[in-house]
Structures are given as structure tokens and as C-alpha cells.
Amino acid sequence: MSGIAVANLRSHRNGFTAVFITVFSAALLVCALGVLFESGIRGGATPHRLAGADVVVGGPQSLAVPEDLDQPYGERVRLPASAVGELAALPDVESAVGDINVLLSDDSGRVFDAHGWSSAALAPYRIVGGNAPTRADEVVTTDPRMLGEQVTLRHGGGGSSYTVVGLASTSSAEPIGRPTTIFMTDGRAQELWPHSGTVAAIGLIAREGVDPAALASQVGTQLRDLDVDTYTGAARADAEYVDIGAARGELAALSAAVAGVALMIAVFVVSSTLSSSIQQRRRDFALLRSMGATPRQVHRLIGAEVWVVSGMAALLGVAPGYALASVLRHQFAEAGILPPDFSLAMGPVPALVAVIAAVVTARMAAAISARRPARLDPVDALREAAVEAAALGRTRIVVGVLTGIGGLIASLLPAFVPGPAAIAGAGSSAILLIVAAALLGPVLVSGAMRAFSGRMTRSGSASAVLAAANLSAHRRRLASAIMPLALAIAFGSVQLFSQSTLLAAAEDQTERGTLADLVVTGPAGVDPQLAATIASMDSVSAANPITRSQALFTRDMADAPVTEVYSVQGIEPETAASTLDLDVREGDLGELAAGSVALSRDAAAAMSAGLGDTITVRLGDGAVVSATVIATYNRGFGFGDITLPGTQVREHTTAGLVDHVLVSAAPGRMDDARRAIEASGGVTALSSNEFAAAVDQEQRKQDSVTLVVLAVLLGFLGIAVVNTMVLMTTDRRREFALLQLVGASTRQVRAMMRRESLAAVAVAATIGTLVAYPPLAGIAIAVSGAPFPTVSVWTYAVLVGAATLLGFVAITGTARRVAHRDRDALGIGA
Questions:
Q1: Could you report the per-residue pLDDT of 477-531, keeping only the tens digit for each?
Q2: Contact predicate 643/652, CB 8 Å
Q3: Predicted model pTM
Q4: Domain enclosing residue 614, as ranges
Q5: In the listed set 614, 634, 665, which residue is the last one of a domain according to the structure?
Q6: Would residue 631 count as lying in a domain?
Q7: 465 domain-assigned
Q8: For the chain, how many structural domains are there in total?
Q9: First to last CA, the chain
């Protein structure tokens, strides 16, 4: 059997090359996504400012979620300053230093990360020029270009003049993409730190000979009344940079979601390619069966061939998979999803998983594809080698219909059930509909081809008549070529236009809900005191400081509790009516105060909370807050799902600053208000339209991640399309030769194939669009109430055009090559 397998590999190079390329691409894709997922668990950055501390102590930066990944907090969890003295009393501690950090900016908008000078020992930083800061108006920099300068540094807009008196350096290079570190006196840093009586982290320097792990084990005993985490080695970066944990969680969630879709696509693509390859060799299997080969022997033969080809392809695909993961990391960092210094975890597990997944998928697909040629009796096998099987199996039809019905029901869920779960259900319904279309492909293609073949027959052209006959007679062959194209169009449309629909809804809600004339922003935020100063200006009628954060809500489910992340905004209730319109549907936003909360209707539905009910959430720093629902509103996409008093939200943010201030100018004095605000220094006053455009640009930058991932997946689908169509067209060499023997010219054969390919891509575009519409309509209903998704005509045209061009070139190019070769072999002229 092995000898026959080797002979088959040599004699059927085209088919096995297609299988090799497909499995290679699948292994590459799965490996890359596996690296990203593993990095969402073990990836991170290198400690820099805390690299000299043997142990770093901080508050728990994530919520433990049973049977799932821990949910990171978006804000710094702080510790009481008294813990520094308690840890310094440990016998194995040489010194304990509390660290705090404040973001400052200069007049050019450059952001600095400011710390007290005592924390310089945790790097350790040493003075290499000038001297340490001794006065409140002195700072030390890590940028040699600043030494000796007089600079104005602003905290949320309010500025002070400082003299750069020293240059500090440490043994490790400054991290890429992070704010420049500066040091000031401990007293001045405490004045700027918005959370008095607390520290961000505590660095412990052990006595000589003390093992950091042993010292870390003593911390919990010493601080038995506090919930703390200890960090040693590379994990110290998690305490230094809060965004590392959040980035890991987002990367793990993103890669897991994409990996699920990618694995489904890989199974479909590998199965389709193998099925086409085996179908191309149906005459060989018919001959084997007529010579006495048993079904088991046919299965063993196909299995041996697939083991060899898929094993080699998968092993060769993992190396470029790591390279692709690095490319994706760079793109994610450019979009702001990952910190610029985030490092991937390049372990062996993704390669192992990719090889196993690719090979097992190929082997299972081969076993399924081999069932029919293996089980037919010799006479039927010979007959089916010449004529395509007429009908689909009953099981396949039933499964396809039920899957399609399930997809349609899921896509319509938002019409009956509000909330993010309904939106997620509508989005995932695309997978069910795509699977249903793949199972029912020959049936769908058959109906469409009757229309095309009728029109072609009436044209009277010889090539049109031949094309019509082929379209009518070979439903399965056409379906194997059309469905990968339809899958690419459907998948691309759902991914692209679900994002555009959500973004358009958020933009519309923001535009309609912003009543203010101006929006005041700063490079690192706006100081609440400056916001109060703005509110007191003569040219300003109202000012509403807005603070953004997040909250975690845990709800009980049948299997286990589920924790969801919600966006939070903190507002000033007294000025909300004149600056903000959340489209309140129940209750009164003016009643918002400590102990109360307003929810978007989607959040209220997901939390099963109505007016008067009490909800419990964890704010950005993990603080547990219970609040009574006093209002529900519509515009959650534009302004956040949870609205709390601004003061309460700021208390639980790292910076303690306002994100932006909504300002309503006095009648006829908008220009005066803008000049007065910007004269205060350090902030920018934008019109509401200018601010909306800036937010839209930032959002589109983050959404570019979707485009990058989509490009990778569509590239994989493109390989499947080319493979399938090349195999299908190559399999018709006998047909082309016969047509030329009976008098058809090469030109007529090519014209026939052009007509067939145009019909195929037209049907693929139609099926792909029809499959994509229900989930997009469901998402549109969820966010706007109408089944009309936001679709860019040009983007859709590019997507369909690219798929059409790919299919057309693959079919006609292969047909041209095969027909030319057969013509030469037969000695037939053009």
C-alpha cells in the first residue's frame, strides 16, 4: 500500500501540491494565532524602572474568574502608604520604597512620567550629570537634551516652571514608546499625586544573599490584612505597567475569537481541497475497486497519502507562523491595542498545536472524502467516475437546512432580545449560515445555474451552449469552486460591515447627544480644578467634566458566573442637561448622586436591572460599588453603558484626571470661551464636530486591527479559492481534449471557460451577499432599530471585485494552460 501511495504522490502532483499548500497555510495561520493566544497568557514587557527591586508588591490587578482567564482591571489598584513601613520592618529587607507616578506634559504636548526621587533606587537610576532634585521646582531627566533647561510642566493643564538640574541613567535602555521618565522631590510628587495616603507599588531591595522568592513569601504574612500580589523576575513589569495586564487580556480574547473562526475556515478549506483532490482521482479509485481493492484498502491508501503530505506541510508551516505572529504584534501595537514594548511569548506549544490541528484536520477530511469512493461497488464506482453523482445525501440536506434555520434565528435575536449578548449572537450567526451554505452548495448552485444556462442557450453562440451544458450537468463541481468564493465574500462582508455599523451607530449617538459647543482636552487629561475654573468663566454657561473608565459586572449563569466589561462615564449631573443628551427613557438623570447609577438600556437588559433595582459592579481599580438604578437611556454606544457621578469615577482612576470637559458657551460667545479656555494653557478647546472627528480617527485606527486580521484570513481563503479552482479546471483536461477532437477550437474552449467563470463568480457574489445580510441586519437592528447595516459601497465593490478577479483568473488561466497543452499533445491547431 505504501508503494502505491508513493506512486500516486508522483503521478498526481497537481492535486497533492494543492493539498500541501492548503495544509501549509492552515498550520501557518493556526501557529500565528496560537502564539498570540499564548502571549495573552505569558507575554509582557521587560521591567525597567523597577528592575533593581528584588520583589515588587502591588494590589491585585485582575479579578479571578473561575474556569476562565482572569479579567484585568483597567486602573491601578493602590496600596496604603503605611504598608511601606510594615514591609521595611521585615528582617530580610534592606529597604522598601513606595512608588507613585504622575503624568505631566509640556507646552508642546510631550508627556512625561514623573516619580519621586526616592524611587530612583528601584531601577536603579544614578546621577550622571548635574545633581539630584532638592527643591520643589527642580527635576531630573533621563533625556540628555533637556539637562539645564527651564521647562513648564503641566498636570492636567495647570502648569509650573521647573529647572532640569540633573541627568539620570540606568544600565537598561529606556523603553520604546513609553513617556520619558523624570524625577522630582518626593514632596512635590506627593502634592501632584491625586490619591493621598496611598502608593502605586512598593519595591523591596533584599539584603545580600536573600532569595527573592523567599522574601516574596514573607510579604503575605506581614501584610495579612491586605490583599496583595508579589512580583519577581520578569513579572515585575506587570507591576510597573498597568496596561500590560489589560493588553494580555485583550490579546487573549481577540486571538481566541479569531482562532475559532480561523479553525472553522481551516477545516472548511482543507476539507474542500482534499475533496476536490480525491474527486479528481475518482477514475483511479474506480479502477482499484474493480480490481478487487476493499474499502479498507482505499481508506488506508488515502490516509497514507494524506499523512505524508499534511505532515510535511504542517512542519514547514510553523516557522513562518512565528514570523506572521510578529507582524501581527507590530500591527496591533501601531493600532494601540498592545503597548509598543509588549513582547510575544515564543514557546513551542503553538507549533505543536498547529501541526496536530492541521494534520488531524486533513486526516479527518480525507476519511470523510474517501467514504463514497471506498464504499461503492466496482460497477457503481466506474459509472460515477464518468458521471457526477446526481443527488446530495439526505443527512447532508437535513443538517444544512437545520443549520441555516438556526443561523437565521440567531441573526434575528436582536429584534426580540436587547443587549450585547444578542449582538454577539447575531454576529456569530454568520458562521452557521456559512456552514449551511457549504452543505447545501450544490442545491443553491443548481437553481442559480438554471437561470444562467437558459440565457446562454438562447444566445446561439457555440461557446455559450457548451458553457450552459456544463453549468447544468456539474452542480457539485461548480459548488466546490463557488462556495470558497462565496465564503470569502460573506465572511469579509460580515467582519467589515459589522464594525462600520457599530461605529456609525456610536458616531450618530455621540453627535446627537453632545449639546455642548466646545470639548476641552489635554495631552494627559484635564485637572478637575481647571474644569471648575472653566465653569466659572463669564463666557461659559455650563461645563461638564467627563471621566472615562470601565467596570466589571458578574452575573450568575447556569454553568458558572460570567464577568463582562462595561464602559463607564463619570459626569456632573447639575450640568448634564445643558451639555449632554443621553436620550433618557426612564427616570431622571438629574437625580444622579453617590449611591445611584444610570444604565443604558442594553446594559440594564443584560443585568436584568430596572428602575429602583440595585446593581453591584467593580470599578476600574477593583473597588466594589453598589448603586441604585435611577435612569435608563438609549445612547450607550456613544457615551458608555454605565453613568456615575464624575467625582466617584475619578477616585477610582489611576490619573485622577478628567478625560475631557463639555462646555456650553454663553449665547453668542463661543469664540470668547475658546480663547479664554486656551489662554489658561495646556489644554485645547475643540468644537463638538472637531472632537467627534478626532475620536472617529482614533477609533478607526483601533479598528484597523480588524482589517489586518481580516486580510490574513481572506488571504488564506484566497489560497483555497485558487487551489480549488485550479484543481477543478485541471480535472477537465480530458473534456477539453475531447472538445478539440470533435472540432472545437482552442478559442471556443477558452470562451466557454470565460462564460462559465463569469457565471460562477456571479453566483458566488450573490450567495455570499445573501449569507452576509441576515447577521448584518441583526446587528443593525440592535444598534439602530432598523435592518439596514452601514455598508461602504466602495469597500463592498473592492471585496467582491477582488474575489471575482481571483476566481476568474484562476479558472481562465488554468483553462488556457491546460487547453494549450492538450492541443499541442493532440496536434490540433488554434
A1: 666 667 777 877 888 888 888 888 888 888 888 888 889 999 999 888 899 999 9
A2: no
A3: 0.82
A4: 540-665
A5: 665
A6: yes
A7: no
A8: 2
A9: 43
- 693 grid coordinates: 472627528
In 178-302, DSSP assigns E strands to 180-184, 198-199, 201-206, 229-231
Query: Following DSSP, what letter does each residue of 385-419 receive, concatenated?
Result: HHS---S--HHHHHHHHHHHHHHHHHHTGGGT--S
What mean pLDDT is reported for the chain?
82
Q: In terms of Cα–Cα distance, which of 767, 796, 813 is closest to 449?
A: 767
Cβ-Cβ contacts under 8 Å for 2 (sequence gap 6 or more): 304
Residues in the chain, overall count: 830
CA-to-CA distance for 205 and 212, rounded, in angstroms?
Answer: 9
* Rounded Cα distance, 550 and 624, in Å: 13
Q: Has residue 436 been placed in a domain?
A: no
Q: Is 621 exposed, middle or buried (0-12, 13-18, 19+ CB in 10 A)?
A: buried
Cell numbers given for 703: 479598528
- C-alpha to C-alpha distance for 392 and 390, rounded to whole angstroms: 7
Rounded CA gap, 561 and 184, in Å? Answer: 46
Largest Cα separation within the chain, whole Å, is 100
Q: Is residue 630 domain-resident?
A: yes
Beta bridge pairs of residue 528: none
Residue 30 reports pLDDT greater than 80: yes
- CA distance linking residue 173 with residue 180, whole number of Å: 12
The answer to whether 550 and 565 have CB atoms below 8 angstroms apart is yes
Task: Give residue-wise pLDDT tens across range 627-643.
Answer: 999 999 998 888 989 99
Interaxial angle between packed helices 242-280 and 688-730, expressed in degrees from 0 to 180 and rounded to the nearest 10: 20
Q: What is the pLDDT of residue 202?
A: 95
Which of 169, 192, 215 corresponds to the end of one domain?
Answer: 192
* Strand pairing category for 180-184 and 138-141: antiparallel
Q: C-alpha angle 44/45/48, rounded to 5°? A: 150
* pLDDT, tens digit, 9 for 90 and up, residues 378-408: 655 555 544 455 456 677 788 888 888 888 8
